[in-house]
Every structure is written in C-alpha cells, then in structure tokens.
Design goal:
about 160 residues; mainly alpha; two-stranded antiparallel sheet; 1 helix; elongated; tubulin binding; Stathmin
C-alpha cells in the first residue's frame, strides 16, 4: 500500500480518490484499517456522457431493403410452420395407421383363438356324447343279457 501526494491510495486493486485508508497497527488477529471518506472532488473535468449520434432519415433504398428482409423472414417462418405442420400430420397419419394395423391384428388373433376354443369345445362335446352313447349301449346290452338270463331261469323253473 502506498500513499501519494494527491490523497490517492493504491490498494493494488484500484485507485480511489475520494477516500483515505490509513493502516493501523497490525494485530495477531489480523490487520485494521481506518477509512476516511471525503466529499466528491471536482477537478474541472466534466462528466463523461456519451453523445448519441443524431438520427438520420433512412433512404428509400434502405427502407426497401428492410421491407424485403422482413418479407423474406416472414416467408421463411411461414415455410417452417408449413413444414412443421406437414410433419405433424404425417406423424398423426402414421400413428393412426399403426393403431388400425394393431386393431386388425388383435381382431384376427381374437377370432382365431375363439375359433380354436369353439373347435375344442365341439370335439369335447362330441367325445362326451360318444362316451355316453357307448355307456348306454353297454347298459342296454347288459339289460338284454339280464332279461335273457331271467327268461332262461324262468324256463328252467318250469
């Protein structure tokens, strides 16, 4: 830290004109400083205010260029929007087509499964009826045999 004659203190960071920093004695806990603020000083220089250049009237050619550029931007935005909407419609069409395809596949497989179950039920029913008819024929055969045997017994008793 260095002091200059103009009251400027260099803290190795920046130069500060409107305050004075005095280093107090060093302590074991750190350093201590006294900061003295002064009222702002004016050294005769006027404040820097950047001047805005005066606006000039644009020429007809510049106006036309800006209008053409704006029209081109509008056309590009419109083309991008059309492209986006076309892609969106194409995606929707693909999704609908896929859903229809999956629906048709589901109906086809459900119909095949139903036909298989109906065929199995029909075969089981026919097998059950055939088994019942076989048992009925066996019972009739047995009943006929019992009748013949009874008639034979009746004839033998006489």
């Amino acid at each position: 830290m260095s002091h200059s004659a103009a009251g400027v203190v260099d803290l190795n960071l920046c130069i500060i004109k409107d305050m004075e920093v005095i280093e107090l004695n060093k302590r074991t806990s750190g350093q201590a400083f006294e900061v003295i603020l002064r009222p702002p000083s004016f050294d005769g220089q006027r404040d820097f205010h950047p001047t805005i250049p005066p606006r000039r009237d644009p020429s007809l050619e510049e106006i036309q260029k800006k209008l053409d550029a704006a029209e081109e931007r509008r056309k590009c935005q419109e083309a991008e929007l059309r492209k986006y909407l076309a892609e969106k419609r194409e995606h929707e069409r693909e999704v609908a087509q896929k859903a229809l395809h999956e629906h048709r596949n589901f109906i086809r497989t459900a119909k095949e499964k139903l036909e298989q179950r109906m065929e199995i039920n029909k075969e089981n029913r026919e097998a059950h009826i055939a088994a019942m008819l076989d048992r009925l024929q066996e019972k009739e055969k047995h009943a006929e045999e019992v009748r013949r045997h009874k008639e034979q017994m009746d004839l033998d008793w006489q």
